[in-house]
Amino acid sequence: xxxxxxxxxxxxxxxxxxxxxxxxxxxxxxxxxxxxxxxxxxxxxxxxxxxxxxxxxxxxxxxxxxxxxxxxxxxxxxxxxxxxxxxxxxxxxxxxxxxxxxxxxxxxxxxxxxxxxxxxxxxxxxxxxxxxxxxxxxxxxxxxxxxxxxxxxxxxxxxxxxxxxxxxxxxxxxxxxxxxxxxxxxxxxxxxxxxxxxxxxxxxxxxxxxxxxxxxxxxxxxxxxxxxxxxxxxxxxxxxxxxxxxxxxxxxxxxxxxxxxxxxxxxxxxxxxxxxxxxxxxxxxxxxxxxxxxxxxxxxxxxxxxxxxxxxxxxxxxxxxxxxxxxxxxxxxxxxxxxxxxxxxxxxxxxxxxxxxxxxxxxxxxxxxxxxxx
Length: 374
Known about the structure:
mainly alpha; two-stranded antiparallel sheet; 4 strands; globular
């Protein structure tokens, strides 16, 4: 007999299919970065809209935060909430930054020719700042890509994730559904304006006015739309939701760039529609999904388990890949697909090992050592 995908976890049931979809999106992020590394221009990237997976992550996060915490504030303080988020997010941030530091000097190449001139003390200083997820100024850009986290670029999205969590905890959680709807509408209009005027929503990883504006705009709509969705959604029973939602995510993120260089607004309109309309629909369908077998349940759990570690461990490996490509010009997809496949499989294996041998034990220790709950 089919069972609803919800499984009991602590006080509330758990949306297992949403975990699976997060894993699917994380794998597509890796594919996007691998494809981006060999493309000479944005229109040639095979997984052209893979960066929108970050916006999907923000939406999922808002949904999960609202579902998990909205009803718990009578017994929870701001400090309790932030400790829970730090416990969940920071161990893998520390590992991801450490991997970036370990591989840093091995990425000395034609694309980053001055890496060997960076003194160890400076790299370590950037590493310790990275452990806090705080951004570094351009004066500490030790790689030369103007990244606010030069040892692991994906840290920028975690920074904005924290911003959204802080805003939620400080006051947005208190908004009525009507007030929250107005905030979400304003955020949607801001996102659409950003995307259509620029042609895409790409950005957020540099500590300057433009990228900070992009980052805040990218997180505000999806995170708080997810929060609103968690409050008003009434899941139904939908069969094969994991399959259909995964296919829809893949189609949206693999879609080629639209409009070319003459009509960039068309691509911005497409991205706006994905983030504002289709991503919430996918989350709703996923929240309404049904698990049909133990195998499907195991797949969802595995994908959910590796999703966050995969996001943080793959980029240090990618730096090595990009450095190799820069020293071996003229490589095509036909030349590098075996290496790319190996990197994908290796990243997934590393993320699972990091989960079991590092992330879960560390988080368990933190809960036992510092938990304020009786």
